[in-house]
Model the fold of this input.
Amino acid sequence: MTEKETTTLLQFEQKLRLLVAHHQKAQERIKELTHSLEQADSHIQELEQRLATIEHSYNNLKQAKVISLSDAEISTTRERLTALVREIDRCIESLTK
Done:
């Protein structure tokens, strides 16, 4: 082998080692990013489950409130209507006199 070929071969080996080192770093980074992505996906699934549970609880609460308000509102509304009818009767009486 000539000196030029030896130099070229050494340069090639250096570049190949550098390329292998970059490849290994890239592989490690890919593993890290994959692990981070899996953790993020897991966290997202957990949050979605919590959201579904909270939405379900909220809907149940809304329904319970509607039911409880309906009973209270019915009696309050009846009282208001009765008071309005009495006032209308008084107004009619005063107009007819």
